[in-house]
Amino acid sequence: MTKCKKRNYSIPDFNKIIEYITEIDDIDEYEKNIIITRFTRISKYVTRNYKILFFCYHFSKLFLIISGILTPALLSFNTGNLNSPYYYLLFSVIWVLQLSISIITSFTSFYKWDKKYFLFMAYKNKIDQEVWLYLELSSKYGILNKKNKLEKRGKKVTHKSKLPFFLNRIEYLFKKLKELDYEIEINDNDNDTDKDKTETKVDIDGISPSFLQSNLLTTTPPTQTPTFDVNKLNTFLKISNNIITLRNNNTGDISNASEFSDKIKIEMTKITDFKKELLSYKKKDNYNFDLYLLNSCSKYNSGNNYDKFTKFICEQLDYETMPTPTKIL
Description:
mainly alpha, 2 domains, 71% helix, 0% strand, flat
């Protein structure tokens, strides 16, 4: 069994995760070492930066709030007597507070603590969740992939069969974190040097809403804000539900097969135009589209056809799995 020195990380149950990885039976020692080494290094990087940003963000926010309250309160004291010792004391305190406010505001603007804090918080949780999903073989790791030789032969999912997918996901999340961290830096620099330059497009999947509002959405010109008609999404979902119902009602009877097939083709033709517009909006504003879709699908969340319905929606709208409140937030 692979031995790993226990470390005190802020990721909940970090040492337990390492212990569970070492106890997996269907992967060899080499594969366990790869998981432990890579996960430990990524976790260490994310956790270290998250702790620093957590302190800087909350300290700066609290200091600015408290100083903003104290400064006018101190100025309200009547200290017109220049010979009073309290006059110089009060003047010094207010001067220090104003100087500190200016320094901290400048540091926050330069290092962008507020934006980076929400970014690292979101990806810290996503990486932690990804490891647990793999260990539990749940969610996307519990879906049988017929193209995977190990799963096709054994007719079940295992840690070994899902290992390449898990490593790919971990590397993808880490790559996106680094890219978005860099994107925060260059976006503000570009805005300072060229006010008319449009913002660089970034994949914003999985980013905190607070980060989106503070970075990407606020710097986008109002004329570029995509518009969306929720009624079209509802019509698309209604037609999709009809297609699933027609498929289930098609029992294989030869006399009715042709009729059901024609009806399904007609319904599929109807959603073509809707699909094109929905995908276009999804590409422009992935976060808000996920919210619209989640709210609109809630009324279909009943009956035996729901799994088939959501699978059909994912195929049509290029989703790996359906959006959930946890994934969005």
